[in-house]
Amino acid sequence: MLEMTAAAARRAAVAAQGFTDRRPASSATRRRVLATVDRTGLLQIDSVSVAVRAHYMPVFSRIGGYDRDLLDAAAWRDSSTKPRALVEYWAHEAALIPVADWPLMRWRMRRYEGGRWAGERRVLDRNPTLGKDVLDVVTEVGPSSAGEVERHLQIDSTGKRGPWWGRSDTKVICEQLFASGALSVDRRVGFVRHYDLADRVLPAGVAARDIPEPDAIRELIRRAGRALGVATAADLRDYHRLSVAQATPAIADLVDDGALVPVTVRGWDAPAYLSAGARVPRRAAGTALLCPFDPLVFFRPRTERVFGFRYRIEIYTPAHKRVHGYYVFPFLHRGELVGRVDIKADRAANALRVPAAFTEDGHHRGEVAETLAVELRSMATWLGLSDIVVGDRGDLAEDLAAAV
Fold first, then answer.
1. Nearest Cα to 76, choosing from 180, 164, 196?
2. How far is it, in rounded angstroms, from Cα 79 to Cα 282?
């Protein structure tokens, strides 16, 4: 069996995610943005906007400053000249995926026809006709938010609420119809989903395409392997949130086909698989700020295994108990995670704030500060912020303040 060092596996993982590619010298084009999404396979969507929405950041981390309207247009502004290239669905979590990959999730849509969670199923049970009513409204009036659907149905939105974050039953039903594939997201306005019939959102033929579950799972595992470079079975499963029962035969098939090559990685506690054709650079490379939901780090056990970097998001931790900060970005430099910074975009003050900054053990603070300062300046410019303000928390704070 092929054997790899932990350092080689780390270099392969970083390269597979596109961090060793040269960044474009000028503003990235739509084609470059979409090529980046194709490389990662998905962009996780999250509502936290303290710095920048999660789906925008991984593209910036890989190609540098780009016009976020390019991503918006690809996902939420379909036109005859530039057809929709990305669509929302439950991939890792809520995510943007290439339109062509939507049929790979058909099996999941079938499983969600009766609701994703027990709370959602209870809402379906007590509103047996609301789903049809929602579909009738959307069919008639076109893309609509849950609130607009309620108004058309003359439902009092202050009445019965669903089980999550005060969602109304109508919103829960809209989400269930989205999960089951009947509705898709035509656009977002102020980050609010506007739903439309899936076959009106998706290009002709995509919504109708049906891929048998075993074939879909095998392709999802193959794509996860390509995006990860080298991965354990748990890593491969997590990328699209697959079960052991689904993934095990798919991995075996891909090994038989030569798409995945079994490897032993020194220091890893589980067998691994190298994606056929994966690059293993001779030297470590890759420098970028990573949002908490970047595909390189969103599976925390893998992040710890590959980088020796224990990472936990502390948004829901009481402020006085936080170790590193509210919204902390790991910092990748020369293919290693060398630090972490709490980041906030203070648009009122026209500043990118860094309340806390930390260096990982074994890395030189001065070098980390200098390279991190460059990335922070690039991020501030991309976000249209003119200043960088570094706080006093963390062992890196003083050096970073001097560097910026």
1. 196
2. 44
Cβ proximity of 76 and 143 under 8 Å: no
**Residue 318: CA count within 13 A, CB half-sphere:** 2
Partners of 330 in the beta sheet? 340
7-55 pLDDT tens trace: 999 999 999 999 999 888 777 899 999 999 999 999 999 999 999 999 9
Q: How many CA atoms lie within 13 A of 141 on its CB side?
A: 18
pLDDT at 263 over 50: yes
Q: How far apart are CA 213 and CA 104, in angstroms?
A: 8
Helix (H, G, I), strand (E, B) or coil at 143: coil
Residue 385 has pLDDT above 90, yes or no: yes
CA 332 to chain centre: 17
Give the DSSP H or E segment for 275.
Answer: strand 272-275
Q: Does residue 202 carry a pLDDT above 60?
A: yes
pTM of the predicted model as reported, rounded to 2 decimal places: 0.94
- CA-CA distance, 145 to 187, in Å (whole number)? 9
Kindly give the pairing relationship between strand 351-359 and strand 387-393: parallel
Tokens linked to 16: 């597979």
CA 204 to CA 400: how far, in whole Å? Answer: 52
